[in-house]
Design brief:
This protein has 6 helices and no strands. Helix content is 63%, strand content 0%.
Length: 174
């Protein structure tokens, strides 16, 4: 009566072409390499943050200046990095996950920030805790903005970007 679907699958759609061979995927094409570079970058970034905490330890009852500074520096580097890879050159597909997500994600820290906030609250330093909570967000955002603006200005001064920066689409921070 009719043919089964499996009989039709083996026949080419166009009589001038043969069956299409199954696609082979390279192990370097999927998400595996991305996960790998994020993991390696994260280990490097977290090690750098740990090193900063050893160089400038924060006593139990003190304001967590080291983590505030680490987060601010990390955010500034993120600002520079994103201008460079989005407005100046096209980076390899693994650069952004390795450095942006991995290294800088491991270096900057939300978990230690949350633990420090909790510790300040438990020590009864409520005003300082909420100052740290809000201050870290403001400092981090200001660091990203200032780094983006400064990077665009420097690159613009060297003629790499337009007068006020901007790359694709003419975006600029003024």
């Amino acid at each position: 009566m009719g043919s089964s679907r499996s009989d039709v699958v083996d026949e080419p759609i166009d009589p001038d072409t043969g069956p299409v061979p199954p696609a082979r995927h390279s192990p370097w094409r999927g998400q595996g390499p991305v996960v790998g570079v994020v993991a390696v970058g994260g280990a490097l970034g977290a090690t750098a943050r740990y090193g900063a905490s050893l160089l400038w330890p924060t006593p139990a009852s003190a304001f967590p200046w080291t983590i505030l500074l680490v987060n601010a520096v990390g955010c500034a580097i993120i600002g520079v990095f994103l201008v460079l890879i989005t407005e100046m050159w096209t980076a390899h597909r693994l650069v952004r996950p390795f450095f942006g997500t991995g290294v800088l994600g491991g270096f900057t820290t939300f978990s230690t920030y949350a633990v420090d906030f909790t510790r300040l609250v438990q020590d009864g330093r409520i005003a300082i805790a909420f100052g740290y909570l809000l201050g870290t967000l403001v400092v981090a955002m200001a660091a990203v903005w200032a780094a983006v603006a400064a990077t665009r200005r420097v690159l613009g001064a060297y003629g790499v970007l337009g007068a006020y920066g901007g790359g694709p689409g003419g975006r600029a921070v003024r």
